[in-house]
Amino acid sequence: MNIETMETHSFDVLVLGSGGAGLRAAVEAASGGGLSVGLIGKSLLGKAHTVMAEGGAAASIGNVDAPDSWQTHFYDTMKSGHYINNFRTVEVFAKEAPARVLELEQWGAVFDRTPEGLIMQRAFGGHSFRRLAHIGDRTGMELLRTLQYRAISLNIEIFQEVTITRLLMDKDRIAGAFGYYREDGHFVMFKAKALVLATGGWGKVYKVTSNSWESTGDGAAMAYRLGGELQDMEMVQFHPTGMVWPPGVAGLLVTEGVRGEGGILYNSEKERFMLRYDPERQELSTRDVVARSIFREVQEGRGTPHGGAWLDISQKGADFIKQKLPGMYEQLLTLGDIDITKSPFEVAPTCHYTMGGVKAHAETCATNIPGLFAAGEVACGLHGANRLGGNSLADILVFGRRAGIAARDFAGSRKGDVVISEREIEEEAERVLKPFTRPDGENPYTIHQELQEAMSTHVGIVRDQKLLEDGLEKILKLQERAKNMGAQGGRTYNPGWHAVFDVENMLLLSELIIRGALERKESRGGHWRTDYPEELEEMGKWNFVHEISPDGDRIKQVPVPIMPPALQEICSRPVAPGKEPSKNLDQRKGASS
Amino acid sequence: MSEQYVLSIFRGDQNGGEEQEYQVPAIPGMVVLDAVHYVQAHDAPDLGVRWNCKAAHCGSCSAEINGMPKLMCKTRLDEYQGQVVHIQPMRTFPIVKDLVADVSWNYEVAKKIATFTPVNAAPFRMQQWDVDRVQEFHHCIECFLCQDVCHVLRDHDAKDQYFGPRFMVKMAEFEMHPVDGADRIPQLKNEGGIGMCNVTKCCTEVCPQHIHITDNAIIPLKERVADRYYDPIRNLIRRLTKKEESSSSTVPSKA
Amino acid sequence: MAQASQPSMNRPIKPSGKLPYWVEPAFTIVAFGGFIIYSLWEVLFHNTGTYHNYVSPFFSPGVAGWFGFHVLTALYVVWVPFIFRFSCYYYRKEYYRAFSFHPFGCAVAEPKSHRNRSYKGEWKINNLHRYTWFLAVIVLIFLWKDVVEAFIFPNGFGVGIGSLILLINAILLTGYTFSCHAFRNMIGGRKDCFSCTAHGQSQKTTSYKLWHRISEANVFHGTWAWASLFSVWIADLYVRLLIMGVIHDVRLF
């Protein structure tokens, strides 16, 4: 491999990931002017997993429920995260989300409207007010498309279908990335003064998942290998309502919007079981609670024929459903043969989001590696132990922008040339081509399948010591086998070859998920251990931070940042700010009006 | 599970290729993409196919199934019971490999479109009934099936003369936005080549999002182009009123 | 484009559950062809379309009579609906598919002969559809006058099969004319914002309501187009057969 002839690009700011967070970061970095900005995506532009976000973007604009405020949003987010979130991240987030949503409108997103002609907001699980700015049930797509067209109108060089296999360092600072074009397999090297990771989550490690093939956690894994700190890895969100039947579509997401618009959950005995688990919020409880409730109902023999719960929105009438949830109507009709305007349908939890990730600074999104910033699902700090629906879309806007600004500033102040070790590149190129020397090696698809089985069995919704230990053993064995993964055929658009690197990353992160889960000896949010069923105050004081070391993963206990008194006061209130009895609004009643 | 489907998938690249047959066991509710994945995992790991969400939200898995442009993730295999399922890449675009087509031309076109230019700052006041029309266009998932089926691009390869249905929809989305102030009519007529469309409506037929591409986007835009360029009486009126207004503004504003 | 490197161009199996792709253009060829031959026969070989109180839509309004012409009298009127329909967005789809194979069906390869001729897009003259719409409305007014007269028999008000046929014909033609794309543009389609003149009001404006109605009808423009084509055909044939004495009108009351 001759490094001189290798395609090389140099940027001031390089963004990895062309989803919502990446695009928002690139747009921000480029709109300052003067700096060169590159954007790399593993898929085509506009296809990123952001399109699967359906319900809306949470922002306390207060168009529908005027008493809503950033304080309430802060209160809800901290409560839902079970207080292991970084309070400062949440504060920044809650304060800035409304401006970010309005900005999208300025760029051409057309949200649903209130009767006053303003942005419409809908109710969602765990939100005290109707807060989710939405466009039917395809908000993520609208957001992504808007940012996509914004990005191409700016001076951003966009690389589509490029896989990055390694981040590059210049001594202790970030220096760029190395990878290949998926289309023909030729190598490409990027030099960068600052790099934004916006590579999303790793939900693809589970078998039943709403995530697409891209969600393999490349960014987190690559940052970890360089010494980046990953936090709260045990926190994985299972969305309560994924499709169950037919098997071909198992795991496919049914938006929380269905419940937000008035959908009701029943068990096989036609009982509205959420009244038992969360009498106050019922179906609109947080996702961890609803997912666990469905799981319990099934375990106790009250599940539907295919092991789920019934979700029914038919009482709202066909016109309403087709207007507010057109995508869901069509999805269930074409793929599930069910007309949701007429009958209930089966749902069961599906892996949806990874709350953990690269530890990022609350204001700048900076990681512990100088020059490396993280935003979106790959970053950690905002969601704590459980993410609120709608917070992820607002997250990518708020922190995508902040990461863009910070990267821009960092690149602007960085002196001297970026130097990259030639030997490192040569080694990496050799490593990347290695699978072709083993055409009869392990099939990456098989390894992936076994990994998904293991993760779903051992670190799913329900966990305990024995399960986790057995799971870890399986993963470690798979990691050994994975060293022998092979690829057939050539370098031109060869998914078998691409899968090798995806699987490597997923195996690494799976190990961290299990190690984190073993460490957290309590139940909190998305992490439910039957051997430690209670939420423990002592455990709530810590985040677990993973760091690579010569003898494998090292876990540090890092104290959860302590809130200043003013924020503590908000969190300690018995009811959410603005929901005090005098002006108490019946949320469900309001939602169905 | 004894029932099997027979898939005949195009294998090859720009140097040519041919269809190869694969057997796939039937699973209830299976879509074509599931079957292709099965083939990938068991028989041909290097089978090139583009996909992402598998839920008809991203528009990556466009292909031609038994000759019709379709999304593989949204096409049920049981539609083809008793038939061999032929799967080929989109024909309008150059092939990369197997089922993957090089759709980069579309991204080049996207860059040429004058972007959304609001006349005032958000928050906008717009009624739902006023934005219904543009919201339909926002359903587009950029699968490029309409570009694939459009005979102007498919049979006449007039990619230098016509932006294609997808970008007519995109321009309609911007142009009909209640707060947009840019003027795309000259671009539509000239560079965009809206006159190349002869309203044969195949784009509408294949649209997986059921956007009324022809009736709601292209024809209304054609009418607006006609308003500007092909309407002698309106032209005359415009010329007369313009003289009275003197030469205050040179930038054409929207009607 | 590397067309040669693409998969073979042969037409695979038809999509299941639907009619074969050639059915629609074939129907168009037969229906259009039939109608045009019939129209030629009607226009070239007949000089009157009046039977008592019934007037054939081919001969109304009696423009020829106004100028004192007595040959090819239908010709002075039929050009109006002809150019209206020829430039109609719906009919363009039908005739471009059926008669010029641009394309014959969706994803169906165009004939080899097209490869040597360059395709220049649609005929620009069709942009004048909006003017033909006004002409069509004028003709339509006369047709409604004919409908009224068709209910007035020498002995006063009455209803015959002929009156009903003319009434239905006028209704279908009205539906076709007022679901027109060009009309939809004129009535409000060219506006970007209906509510902008009435900020903050959730009340739908009249212009919006009108445009919305027309848009709803426009969805069925193709249906209106075929239905009204056949109703004109039937109405004219009915009157023609009455004049020829082949059939007798039935008075219902």
From TrEMBL, chain A:
The species this protein was found in: Sulfobacillus benefaciens
Name of the featured protein: Fumarate reductase/succinate dehydrogenase flavoprotein subunit
UniProt keyword Acetylation present: no
Molecular-function annotations in GO: steroid dehydrogenase activity, acting on the CH-CH group of donors
Domain of life: Bacteria
Keywords: FAD, Flavoprotein, Oxidoreductase
A Pfam family per the record: FAD_binding_2
Cofactor(s) named in the record: FAD
Domain (Fumarate reductase/succinate dehydrogenase flavoprotein-like C-terminal): residue spans on this chain: 448-538
Active site: 287 (proton acceptor)
Compositional bias annotation for Basic and acidic residues: 580-593
Annotated segments matching region Disordered: 572-593
Domain FAD-dependent oxidoreductase 2 FAD-binding residue range list: 12-393
From TrEMBL, chain B:
SUPFAM superfamilies, sorted: 2Fe-2S ferredoxin-like, alpha-helical ferredoxin
UniProt GO BP: respiratory electron transport chain; tricarboxylic acid cycle
Swiss-Prot/TrEMBL cofactor(s): [2Fe-2S] cluster; [3Fe-4S] cluster; [4Fe-4S] cluster
PROSITE patterns found in the cross-reference section: 2FE2S_FER_1 (PS00197)
PANTHER family: SUCCINATE DEHYDROGENASE [UBIQUINONE] IRON-SULFUR SUBUNIT, MITOCHONDRIAL, SUCCINATE DEHYDROGENASE IRON-SULFUR PROTEIN
Protein known as: Succinate dehydrogenase/fumarate reductase iron-sulfur subunit
Keyword Magnesium annotated: no
GO CC list: plasma membrane
NCBIfam families the UniProt entry points to: dhsB, PRK12386.1
Organism: Sulfobacillus benefaciens
Record GO terms (molecular function): 2 iron, 2 sulfur cluster binding; 4 iron, 4 sulfur cluster binding; electron transfer activity; metal ion binding; oxidoreductase activity
From TrEMBL, chain C:
Ranges that cross the membrane: 21-41, 63-84, 128-144, 156-178, 223-247
Keywords: Membrane, Transmembrane, Transmembrane helix
Top-level taxon: Bacteria
The name this protein goes by in its record: Succinate dehydrogenase
Organism: Sulfobacillus benefaciens
